[in-house]
């Protein structure tokens, strides 16, 4: 009697397994377009929303601090800023380039600071100017040695602390930015933004 | 006179022969990959791995692990990292217990489950990625892998309670070197300490001792950070080991030569086949590791009359065997559970029709195969040499076993700079296929017998 019960359970279970396998195998991929401002957290890792929100908040903080007015009072001009390296010291291979672009966009669009091209961009611009020296008409040619030098460099880092226990984890992100005067290495602004996320993983999959 | 028992047996054996012919094992599928690799053609091996593993859902992680390693060997470091990152993502996704796969592994065969990688393979994935980033000159990205491997090792320590492999000393040691190269001495010392303790703890079972360069690093950093008691303890333990202070070290350039050696062991099947008095076939198939024979007697790096021997820092072969041995109890229990389930299914089918019972028995017998999957392109061992040189231009000669080698000509080394050279010597005749094809200056073969 127990043997019969066992065999029925086995048959039933094998049927169930086949059903599950067929069901899982039949799942297709769907694509849906969503607004670029819409927040959708999938993995819990650093994403485009984090990058954008942190850049907005930190730039707003930077523009509200006295270094900006101090510079205007001293020189009568808007300060010129260059974004240097933002080091990724986190646990993730996150794209610091998009974060730097978000920072630049916010700073430029504020209209309160001038912005100059990065070292990499300057090289290609200089190549273009050298090319213009040979090939462009004198009226349209742009001269060498007329570049705008930056007053400040924005440097930073993204750090993480991850606390994990089984399926649960808390991811803590800390973004630190510093505005440093290129004339005398003074740190004129320090900004910090923290993000904390709680993630609970699945216990089972089909 | 009818002999249904005999007839059933005959039909069963015939069906078994037919069925078994169509059931290629993982080893069979992987043979062309290994053949191409041993011939010194990782590019062809890469093509062969597509034929062997592509499209097999349960082998998706293994497919990306093998591709990742082979693409590294071809010098495609970015492509290698893309594959390894994909494998990492799938490990997270598929590491969660699957209801259907667990059921399948208890009733059909071990190999129906998605392969998620042995614990040491999950750790080494991060190291191979870090090697790629170092070759690409992206040290912060290599540092990300060091942080991720720390998380993996924390999880391993929690999951592997009672296991010999509850930490990976080489992963810790490499993390320490990365932190030190980035100027993070405190983090480096923490990693070195963990490496040293893990080496000592696993020494008896795995057979790898803490390398001299690690012991020197512990003396150097405990001295620099003013940890006098700890420093005195290490001095007493390490005897007259030569080491340089951080200040002396800063005046020299550091060449870190890491090489894989041979190939990781392969799994083979040990099976027990029996036929009971009713003519039913039963089979228990279990995996066991078989080592590949290629080993180096020595390796090292030499420049300007100075030489550093490459000590064994990780014995992947020994770790793989140890991990499998520890898991054999659970694997055997699942094999027995399958035997019981399959026997019950045969009895039920036979009640409906004797031929149905025979068919189910043959199918169950033929499907009972050991899971022979493992990351086969990993090396059997890793060696590491640390050579401090005066700043300047050097010809760096890497030697493998005293007969084979290569020289990187006119490498500019600056004081305080860390120069990583990462290679993989596979077998005599095959030589090294470490993917060091760019970014390391011109190469020429080393003189025969160069050491």
3D architecture notes:
In chain A, 40% of the residues lie in helices and 27% in strands. With 206 residues, chain A is of the alpha/beta class. A five-stranded mixed β-sheet of chain A has the order 2-1-3-4-5, with helices on one face. In chain A, a hairpin with a 5-residue loop joins strand 4 (168-181) and strand 5 (187-200). Chain A is globular. By secondary structure, chain B is an alpha+beta fold. In chain B, strand 3 (266-275) and strand 4 form a beta hairpin. Chain B is elongated. Residues 1-21 and 437-451 of chain B have low confidence and may be disordered.
Sum up the structure in keywords.
heterodimer; A: 206 residues; five-stranded mixed sheet; 40% helix; disordered N terminus; B: 451 residues; alpha+beta; five-stranded antiparallel sheet
Percent of residues in β-strands of chain A: 25-35%
Q: Which overall shape of chain B is indicated by the principal axes computed on the Cα atoms?
A: elongated
**Percent helix range of chain A:** 25-40%
Number of strands of chain A: 6
Measured between the Cα atoms of the first and last residue of chain B, the distance is 78 Å
| Ends apart, CA distance between termini of chain A | 32 Å
Which ranges of chain B are low-confidence, i.e. pLDDT below 50, for 5 or more consecutive residues? 1-21, 437-451
Greatest contact pair? A-B, 30 and 26 residues
Tally of DSSP helical segments of chain A = 5
């Amino acid at each position: 009697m127990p043997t019969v019960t066992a065999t029925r359970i086995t048959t039933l279970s094998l049927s169930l397994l086949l059903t599950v396998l067929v069901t899982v195998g039949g799942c297709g991929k769907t694509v849906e377009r969503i607004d670029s401002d819409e927040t959708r957290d999938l993995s819990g890792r650093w994403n485009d929303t984090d990058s954008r929100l942190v850049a907005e908040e930190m730039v707003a903080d930077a523009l509200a601090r006295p270094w900006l007015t101090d510079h205007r009072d001293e020189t009568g001009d808007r300060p010129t800023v260059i974004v240097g390296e933002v080091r990724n010291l986190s646990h993730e291979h996150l794209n610091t380039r998009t974060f730097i672009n978000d920072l630049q966009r916010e700073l430029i669009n504020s209209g309160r600071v001038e912005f100059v091209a990065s070292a990499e961009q300057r090289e290609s611009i200089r190549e273009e100017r050298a090319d213009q020296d040979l090939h462009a008409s004198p009226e349209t040619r742009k001269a060498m040695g007329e570049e705008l030098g930056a007053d400040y460099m924005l440097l930073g880092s993204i750090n993480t602390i991850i606390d994990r226990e089984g399926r649960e984890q808390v991811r803590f992100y800390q973004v630190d930015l510093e505005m440093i005067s290129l004339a005398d290495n003074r740190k004129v602004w320090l900004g910090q933004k923290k993000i904390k996320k709680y993630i609970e993983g699945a216990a089972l999959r089909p | 006179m009818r002999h249904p028992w005999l007839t059933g047996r005959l039909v069963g054996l015939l069906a078994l022969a037919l069925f078994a012919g169509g059931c290629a094992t993982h080893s069979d599928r992987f043979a062309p990959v290994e053949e191409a690799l041993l011939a010194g053609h990782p590019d062809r091996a890469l093509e062969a791995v597509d034929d062997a593993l592509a499209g097999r859902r349960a082998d998706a992680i293994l497919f990306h692990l093998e591709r990742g390693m082979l693409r590294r060997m071809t010098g495609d470091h970015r492509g290698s990292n893309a594959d390894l990152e994909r494998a990492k993502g799938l490990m997270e996704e598929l590491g969660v217990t699957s209801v259907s796969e667990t059921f399948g592994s208890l009733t059909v065969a071990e190999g129906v489950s998605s392969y998620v990688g042995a614990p040491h393979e999950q750790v080494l994935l991060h190291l191979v990625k870090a090697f790629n980033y170092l070759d690409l000159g992206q040290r912060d990205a290599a540092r990300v892998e060091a942080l991720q491997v720390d998380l993996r090792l924390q999880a391993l320590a929690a999951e592997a309670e009672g296991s010999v492999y509850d930490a990976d000393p080489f992963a810790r040691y490499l993390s320490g070197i990365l932190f030190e190269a980035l100027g993070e001495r405190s983090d480096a010392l923490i990693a070195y300490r963990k490496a040293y303790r893990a080496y000592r703890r696993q020494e008896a079972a795995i057979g790898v001792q803490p390398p001299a360069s690690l012991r020197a690093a512990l003396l150097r950093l405990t001295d620099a950070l003013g940890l006098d008691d700890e420093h005195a303890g290490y001095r007493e333990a390490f005897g007259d080991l030569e080491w340089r202070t951080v200040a002396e070290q800063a005046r020299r350039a550091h060449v870190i030569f890491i090489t894989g050696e041979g190939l990781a062991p392969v799994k083979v099947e040990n099976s027990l086949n029996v036929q009971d008095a009713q003519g039913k076939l039963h089979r228990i198939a279990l995996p066991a590791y078989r080592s590949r024979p290629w080993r180096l007697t020595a390796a090292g790096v030499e420049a300007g009359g100075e030489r550093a021997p490459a000590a064994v820092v990780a014995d992947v072969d020994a770790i793989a065997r140890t991990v499998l041995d520890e898991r054999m109890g659970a694997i055997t229990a699942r094999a027995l559970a399958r035997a019981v389930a399959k026997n019950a299914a045969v009895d039920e089918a036979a009640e409906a029709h004797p031929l149905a019972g025979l068919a189910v028995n043959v199918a169950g017998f033929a499907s009972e195969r050991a899971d022979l999957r493992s990351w086969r392109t990993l090396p059997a061992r890793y060696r590491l040499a640390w050579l401090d040189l005066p700043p300047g231009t050097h010809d760096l000669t890497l030697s493998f076993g005293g007969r084979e080698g290569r020289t990187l000509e006119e490498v500019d080394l600056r004081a305080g700079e860390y120069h990583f050279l990462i290679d993989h010597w596979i077998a005599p005749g095959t030589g090294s296929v470490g993917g060091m094809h760019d970014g390391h200056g011109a190469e020429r073969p080393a003189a025969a017998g160069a050491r």
